[in-house]
């Protein structure tokens, strides 16, 4: 009887091929439009071999993007927690420092993993990742309200935004940041754009929050 030995290198190469083909298919057709049958066929594996790696198209898509979506969301929450760990008397002076560094790092990470983020941003309808930007915006709105109350208690008089307008402003900021990934802007140019975007929003928030 012929013995067949498991080859880790071959399995790794097969998985990499599946990932490459799947990424291209999802980017071209979106999650809903992509065919698992076509992915398997183009990757040159049998359906049975594919199911040795993933149970479904959903699980495959998640494998491509979840580690990166989780990283950005967890990093974003860490920035918020680090900011809130400062004495409240320092919040007004430090808020923009944390925002600037946070946006820059999020952009750089997304750029360094841009295929995953292009999938999240352009091809994730029908998956748990389709509300990625919205979920970040909701976290930002929560901390913004906490910040408002605290600086009001310190004697500042921030302008109260209409909730719809507030959501539009915050959503616009993060959507614009990730537009740099969608349009595949070169990294150095993207960093300059991210900085100018931050400066634009800083001026607006300084006026709204009346921190001067």
Give keywords.
212 residues; mainly alpha; 9 helices; 76% helix; disordered N terminus
Radius of gyration: 22 Å
- The residue fraction in helices comes out at over 70%
Strand content: under 5%
Can you give the mean pLDDT?
Answer: 92
- In DSSP terms, counting alpha (H) and pi (I) runs of 4 or more, how many helices? 9
User: How would you sum up the major sheet?
Assistant: none
- Give the structural class: mainly alpha
Oligomer: single chain
Short recap of the structure:
With 212 residues, this protein is mainly alpha-helical. It contains nine helices and no strands.
Verbal overview:
- It is a single chain.
- By secondary structure, the chain is an all-alpha fold.
- Helices cover 76% and strands 0% of the residues.
- Helix 4 (57-84) crosses helix 6 (114-122), helix 4 (57-84) runs parallel beside helix 7 (132-153) and helix 5 packs antiparallel against helix 9 (187-209).
- It is elongated.
- The N and C termini lie far apart (82 Å).
- The relative contact order is 0.11.
- Mean pLDDT is 92; it is low at 1-6.
Show the helix and strand layout.
Layout: H1 8-33, H2 36-43, H3 47-50, H4 57-84, H5 91-112, H6 114-122, H7 132-153, H8 163-182, H9 187-209
């Amino acid at each position: 009887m012929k013995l067949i030995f498991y080859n880790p290198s071959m399995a790794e190469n097969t998985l990499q091929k599946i990932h490459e083909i799947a990424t291209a298919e999802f980017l071209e057709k979106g999650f809903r439009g992509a065919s698992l049958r076509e992915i398997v066929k183009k990757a040159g594996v049998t359906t049975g071999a594919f199911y040795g790696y993933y149970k479904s198209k959903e699980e495959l898509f998640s494998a491509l993007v979840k580690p990166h979506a989780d990283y950005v969301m967890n990093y974003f929450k860490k920035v918020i927690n680090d900011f809130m760990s400062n004495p409240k008397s320092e919040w007004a002076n430090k808020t923009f420092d944390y925002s600037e560094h946070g946006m820059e790092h999020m952009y750089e990470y997304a750029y360094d993993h841009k295929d995953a983020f292009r999938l999240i941003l352009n091809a994730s309808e029908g998956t748990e990742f389709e509300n990625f930007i919205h979920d970040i915006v909701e976290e930002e709105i929560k901390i913004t309200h906490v910040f408002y109350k605290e600086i009001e208690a310190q004697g500042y008089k921030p302008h109260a935004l209409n909730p719809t307008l507030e959501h539009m402003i915050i959503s616009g900021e993060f959507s614009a940041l990730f537009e740099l990934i969608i349009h595949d802007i070169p990294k150095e140019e993207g960093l300059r754009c991210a900085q100018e975007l931050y400066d634009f929003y800083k001026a607006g928030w300084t006026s709204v929050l009346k921190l001067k």
